[in-house]
Amino acid sequence: MKKVININFQGRVVPIEETAYDILKQYVESLRRFFANEEGKDEIINDIEGRIAELFGETLKKGGTCITDDDVNAIINSMGRPEEFETEEASVREQLSGEQKQYSNTGSTSSSQTYSESTGSVRPERFYRDENNKLLGGVCAGLANYFNIDKLVVRILFIIFTFGFGFGFITYLILWVAIPSSASTTIGSVRKRLFRDPENKLIGGVCGGLASYFGVNIWIPRILFLIPFLSIVTSWNHWGVFDFPNFINLSFSPGATLIYIILWLVLPEASTTSDKLEMKGEKVDLNSIKNTIQKDMEGFGERAKAFGAEVGERAAELGSNIGARGKQFSAEAGGVAKKAGTTLGDIIVLIFKIFAYFILAVVLIAIVGALFGVGIAFTGLLPLKSYVINDGWQNTLAWGAYIFFIWVPVIGIITWIIRRIARIKSNSSVMRFSFAAMWIVGLFCVIGLIASLRNDFSYHNSPVEANIPLTNPGIGKLELKLQKDTRYYFSNNFLHFEPFANIDEDTAFVQNIHIRVMKSESDSFHATILKMVNAATKTEADEKADRMQFNITQKDSSLLFDRGIPISKEDKFRNQTVYITVYVPVGKRILIKDNVGWSDRFHIELGNDVDDWRWRYDEDGYNWESNVEYTMTAEGLKRTHEEKKHDNDENDDNNDNDKTSPSDNYKDRIDTIKNNSNDSTRYHYQPAKEEQQQKEVKVAIEEPATKRIMNINVHDLATTFIERTAI
Fold first, then answer.
1. Where is the composition biased (Basic and acidic residues) (predicted)?
2. Which among 78, 96, 114 is the end of a domain?
3. What crossing angle do the helices spanning 255-266 and 219-230 adopt, rounded to 10°?
4. Contacts of residue 610, Cβ cutoff 8 Å, sequence gap at least 6
5. Which residues contact 646 (CB under 8 A, 6 or more apart)?
6. Residue 356 lies in a domain
């Protein structure tokens, strides 16, 4: 039984057999003799001892009670012996000089490989990640070795599970973390570990460590971490008027920042030479440690030499000025307090400068992001350009605004930032004036385009309300539905870009469709349609309105609507709008069916700010909800089934809900009129709103529409009667 002692080796308490300690001590002494004449010998010996201490720790973690002779010999074999490096050059020359020896070496190598392959076919006792045949983490190669199957089969299965079922990647990561590496079975074997790189860091060295681990350029992981921040402006693919295509839909979340912070906290820093070698996947032995340390010392020597030259120049400059400074010493001594105050002021100024530069950077990033977002927005609108912009000057101005006003500032600011980082100052004034001139050209293009488009929307057509013929107006219930037209797909937005299905070759479809529900004066359903459009002249607007196509047909008890207003490339989009009014008799029911998905544009909209007559046109309609059956009463629309009472305040005001009865409303109105009856300055009679509307809107000579326009409000009649009675 061998004696075990405890030693303090590189800051670690290591239990080791006494004979093993003697072997270790002899090895360290041989290293000191071997590196006696090398530059940085102390650093080399210290790093080698540190590596040996790490291997001691790994051996003890595997369950060993102490370091044995075999452990020390295995570590020495992995690190290399000094005599091996002394004869390395001679061995290489001998191998290159004799072909027979090279052939024999090749034969022995192939035989050893054959033996390795034959022995590799035996199933291992444990599952390890194969570090020698890995593409990423060695999981697939380890599974193939364990089950004695082809590695390609396992990799194909993982790809299928990843892209077909979605859980292959998570499984791979779990196995990568949980399964030990095959390198852990051999002391001092070549392996690659993930560290933070302190020599190539901007923040924490995470990207530098990832680049070294995967063997790629350092800018690749930096760009991958930066892309989510650049995608803030494109993180929302819904902008109200259109949807972005998927290829520019980049979702932003704090995931990239969170991953970076976690890696920063979890990954150790490559502080020692062995850590730096393992980070790159290089073998840690005497030769590699020596080369790394000497390379670092050469770089340090160059930096120290440059620093010494700079210090010498500063010292010479200080010596030349020492006389003049000595003459001013008495004057400066008198202003010590003032200088102290100045120093404090300089610190405050420095803090404000840092804060100002930070604000400037944020503003620049915000400007670039805003311009980038606007550029992407206009890029998304390009498929609609031929449906909005006229050929000729408008088309030229649109392209000029898109290129010079939107993208030139983005390219210019990014170029300026890169030149500032790289400290490139050549021809900066020429480039600056060139970008400024192009942006001014783009500004004039924007102004011209807005003025031209504004002229195309200057006038609207004369509103003419026409009857919609119904085949069965005497039914008891009418359902409003959309046509089941599978040619077009409409979303809840104005135009949907993602599938581009709402643009059919030379036609676009818009959903500027308003539906009103009114009380009928007869015992039958009837409906009217009003088409509105803008143009450069009133005559042109009337012609465009005549060419508008919007079909409404009745099938049994259903009233079917087209799913959109078709717009050709010749007519262009000029705010084409359709107003549909459905008159419901008292006691009959109406249901607006959500059979294929109504667009938000189909719902009633109050307060259109284009023209005053549109406000008055919309204000008398009753509010409604889809898939809810209503019954028309003398007071207005009411739900047929009262089990769901969640009408909003507008429905309450328009439909006279149960909280306030009509008699209470009349009573309050009578009290108000009586209180104001003695005021001689007040008018006691107001003309009906329909009279004003009749002056502004010319109506087609059709009986139902005429009856609706000439309808007198019952409340106004009651008010007039009460006022005259009070007087």
1. 656-672
2. 96
3. 140
4. 460, 575
5. none
6. no
- Burial (CB < 10 A; 0-12, 13-18, 19+), residue 653, is exposed
The answer as to whether 175 is a domain residue is: yes
- Boundaries of domain holding 676: 667-726
Question: CA 491, CA 568: separation in Å to the nearest integer?
Answer: 20
- Give yes or no: residues 422 and 519 share one domain: no
Single-letter residue type at 37: N
Residue 573, classified by CB atoms within 10 Å of its CB into exposed (0-12), middle (13-18) or buried (19+), is: buried
pLDDT digits (tens, 9 = 90+) for 223-244: 877 766 555 444 444 433 344 3
List of residues 6+ apart from 329 with CB closer than 8 A: none
User: In the predicted model, is pLDDT for residue 347 greater than 50?
Assistant: yes
Where helices occur in 524-683 by DSSP H, the ranges are 538-547, 612-618, 649-655, 662-675
Q: Are residues 51 and 145 in the same domain?
A: no
Same domain, 77 and 164: no
3-class state of residue 494 by DSSP: coil
CA 54 – CA 278 distance, rounded (Å): 12
Asked if 35 and 180 sit in the same domain, the reply is: no
C-alpha to C-alpha distance for 67 and 73, rounded to whole angstroms: 10
How far apart, in whole angstroms, are the C-alpha atoms of residue 312 and residue 302?
A: 15
Residue positions counted in the chain = 727
Q: Alpha-carbon distance 526 to 554, whole Å?
A: 11
Give the whole-angstrom CA distance, residue 67 versus residue 74.
11
10 Å CB burial of residue 182 (0-12, 13-18, 19+) is: buried
609 and 694 housed in the same domain: no
Establish if 260 belongs to a structural domain: no
Q: What gap in Å lies between CA 127 and CA 557, rounded to an integer? A: 71
Residue found under tokens 């005429």 = 706
Rounded Cα–Cα distance for residues 58 and 168 (Å): 31
Domain contains 247: no
Containing H/E element for 591?
strand 589-592
Tell me which H or E stretch contains 422.
helix 408-422
Quote the CA–CA distance of 591 and 639 in Å, as a whole number.
10
Residue 702 predicted with pLDDT over 70: no
Distances (CA, A) of 566 to 488, 506, 571, 667: 11, 10, 10, 50
Q: Are residues 671 and 651 in the same domain?
A: no
Same domain, 437 and 509: no
Q: Are residues 452 and 478 in the same domain?
A: no
End-to-end CA distance of the chain: 128
Out of 96, 111, 142, a domain closes at 96
Per residue in 450-507, pLDDT (tens digit) is: 998 888 888 888 888 888 888 878 888 888 887 765 544 444 444 444 333 366 667 7
Tokens linked to 16:
């080791």
Cβ proximity of 181 and 141 under 8 Å:
no
